[in-house]
Design goal:
Radius of gyration: 23 Å
Shape: elongated
Largest sheet: 6 strands, mixed
Distance between the termini: 27 Å
CATH architecture of the largest domain: 3-Layer(aba) Sandwich
Strand content: 25-35%
CATH class of the largest domain: Alpha Beta
Helix content: 25-40%
Number of strands: 14
Structural class: alpha/beta
Number of helices: 8
Order of helices and strands: EEEHEEHEEHEHEHHEEHEEHE
CATH superfamily of the largest domain: Zn-dependent exopeptidases
């Protein structure tokens, strides 16, 4: 089991940086929460603990003490920059070698693949969370909250999700995480022994705006109108099909 400790920077009485109607403490918590969900839902053999899960005040010592007590394999502190710059940068403690440097390389590279940020480089700093942790540690600075162009990106939920995805991809490379088997929730509106009947239903579904296909499985021609990793999305489509007059149901495969 790989134990990843996520540290959303600031919180509570410490808002961190602010600009353009945004506060760092809120953005870091959003990114860390998205990242936790990706790691838990998509990878096997990973455990995640956050230094905070809400807008609460947590001291630097409390953060590092919690990670050390938990015996984490990695400490990842997530921040948003300020100071009229732009782009992404990452930090490790000065003078450390592999695997900390290797992990920094992986995560830095994967984040830049996911988001439209210029790189400000892989750096070192004597930050408390890098100095007082007994495991490899990294601090990321994800854009500048006081830069109008960066702030326009950071206000987007999908952009924050992409930042989290970049962190996750880097962690997966660093710790050789194994993806969980993909589970799809499929929406079906009919099954027939005669292919012509299935084709007729598929044509009717297409005429009503559904993206239908006919699949041969278990000696039946099945008419499918969608497949999703999210059960909620599948159920939404199934309800839409029912409202259009089709007998739909969701099944897992």
């Amino acid at each position: 089991m790989v134990k990843i400790f996520l540290d959303p920077g600031h919180g509570g009485f410490d808002p961190g940086a602010s600009g353009h109607g945004l506060q760092e403490k809120n953005l870091t918590l959003q990114i860390a929460t998205y990242l936790k969900d990706i790691l838990i839902n998509e990878y096997e053999g990973v455990s995640v603990l956050l230094s905070r899960t809400s807008d609460q005040t947590v001291s630097l010592s409390q953060r590092t003490d919690a990670a050390n007590k938990w015996d984490a394999d990695y400490f990842l502190s997530i921040h948003i920059n300020a100071g009229n710059g732009t782009g992404f940068e990452s930090y490790i403690y000065p003078g450390v070698g592999a695997p900390t440097t290797t992990y920094q390389d992986f995560i830095h590279e994967e984040i830049l693949k996911q988001v439209d940020f210029t790189t400000r480089g892989k750096k070192t700093a004597n930050f408390h969370v890098l100095r007082e942790t007994i495991m490899p540690a990294l601090l990321t600075e994800n854009g500048f909250i006081d830069n109008v162009n960066d702030a326009k990106k950071l206000i987007s939920r999908s952009f924050l999700t992409n930042i989290a995805r970049g962190h996750a991809n880097g962690l997966a490379r660093a710790f050789k995480l194994t993806k969980k088997p993909t589970i799809l929730f499929k929406v079906q509106i009919g099954a027939f022994s005669d292919k012509s009947n299935a084709d007729s239903l598929a044509s009717e579904a297409k005429s009503k705006g559904f993206d239908s296909i006919v699949l041969l499985k278990d000696k039946l021609y099945k008419v499918q109108i969608g497949a999703f990793s999210s059960k909620e999305n599948a159920e939404t489509l199934a309800n839409r099909a029912k409202n259009a007059g089709f007998s739909s149901f969701v099944y897992q495969e």
